[in-house]
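Minutes, project check-in
Item: structure for the 371-residue chain
Input as provided by the requester:
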Amino acid sequence: MPHTPKPDEDDLDTVPPPPPVFHVEQALLGALLLDPHRIDDVSGIAADSFSTAAHAALYAAISTLPRPDTAEHAKNTKWLDRVLAAGREQARGLTAPYLHTLVQVCPWPSHAPAYARMVEAEHARRRLLTAAQRLIHTVHDASLPLPVQTVLAEADTLAAVVDDIANRFPPRSGVLPRTPAPPPAAPDHTEAVEEEQLLLATATARPDDIDTVRCLFPDDLTLPLHAGLWQCLTTLARRGEPIDPVTVLWEAQQRGLLDDGSEPGEVLRMLAEPAGSVGHWAERALQRSLLTTAEHTGRRIETYADDPANTPFQLVVGARRALADIATVRTRWQNATRTTPPQQRRPAPATRAGPPTTTAAHVTRSTRATR
């Protein structure tokens, strides 16, 4: 008979064990409590680099309080008492026994710089994860008056985080994340399908306007049939051949677009109902493609950063490759709308100057390649 826990029983099995970085932070704080002067050997981290409020409060106290005399520190706990009092101002749950626990669990105080580097690496992963999730959230924010500009600004912020991590942990060539990239999310095609049908029909009725929307690629459309029909239209226009629903249908048959079961009569009816302008529907399709690309980029980086086995070097390489996809669509969007929104100014990294290669340079090269 299965055991049913009583209301006053604690189900300790439901409490997940702390991650490895928690123990690393304990070792680092223990080293600094044992020998406060080792703070001079620690760089690249701050209080917000720690994963818990208690550890952050302790590090802030250790790094700001005047250091004790080494001989006096070995004789009494006065300095530890001051650290505890300062730490409690930010984290009331701190206790004297916990400080003694930190001292006891530190294996080698001389390894403090190595522990700090591990804390810095884990903080970099969390920062990247947060920035990627903010980008995804922005893509789905229906309240934004200027969704493209806001999403691109958020992508710039994400790129700045990647640049800062790269300066702290210069990437190694060829080191890709070990985590497989997620498949593209399945969006709601209802609105997209209707608008793409109007695009195809209007382009069929006004073929002279097709050349004005060169920035729209077949892959920007959501359905394979629509992508194929757009390719039929652009091909016929490039050849200078007659364009009407019948000629487009024939070209679609030659390309095997009807092999998926699409009925010729349905295709003809769809192509015979134009409305609006080709430029308007093309811009709508391109905007949707940019937002979809931004979301997939955010999800790729989120997946990489959510795997603690990926090193900062791997995260930088994977994130830069993902961000290059946004750069390609961004260039076409700017060419289509004749606007160049200013990118956010990226803050200079505070520590460890890195290699001259930055995400900005990488994006520039990708942009040139698409022209």
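Outcome recorded: The chain is about 60% helix and 0% strand.
No further action items on this chain.
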